[in-house]
């Protein structure tokens, strides 16, 4: 296994949008560690990203997670989801993927 985190900054600097999503009940890759990795990334937009804070992610009128994002980098914590977010929260995961692939605001 190899750490791919160092490549994320380069991808972001080359215009590739990055989505880091994690279930808050994931004990393999916990959300605290994923968030720490995300805010520690070095890329051209890292100052803008780190000036943001986690805010509620609302879907169908209910808070289902927390999000921090800019146009290129998105961190999304999904409530009551384990390691396989689509298994635990299929509707929320589908909404997340649909918004991501169509580049619509969360």
Automatic annotation (TrEMBL):
Keywords: Carboxypeptidase, Glycoprotein, Hydrolase, Protease. This is Carboxypeptidase D. InterPro entries: AB_hydrolase_fold (IPR029058), Peptidase_S10 (IPR001563). Gene3D superfamilies: alpha/beta hydrolase. It comes from the Eukaryota. Belongs to the peptidase S10 family. One of its GO terms (molecular function) is serine-type carboxypeptidase activity. The keyword Glycoprotein applies. The keyword Mitochondrion does not apply. It comes from Mucor circinelloides f. circinelloides (strain 1006PhL). One of its GO terms (biological process) is proteolysis.
């Amino acid at each position: 296994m190899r750490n791919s985190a160092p490549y994320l900054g380069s991808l972001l600097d080359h215009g590739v949008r990055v989505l880091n999503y994690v279930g808050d009940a994931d004990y393999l890759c916990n959300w605290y560690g994923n968030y720490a990795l995300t805010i520690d990334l070095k890329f051209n937009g890292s100052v803008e990203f780190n000036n943001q804070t986690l805010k509620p992610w609302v879907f169908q009128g209910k808070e289902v997670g927390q999000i921090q994002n800019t146009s290129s980098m998105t961190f999304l914590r999904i409530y009551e989801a384990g390691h396989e977010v689509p298994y635990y929260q299929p509707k929320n995961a589908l909404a997340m993927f649909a918004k991501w692939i169509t580049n619509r605001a969360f």
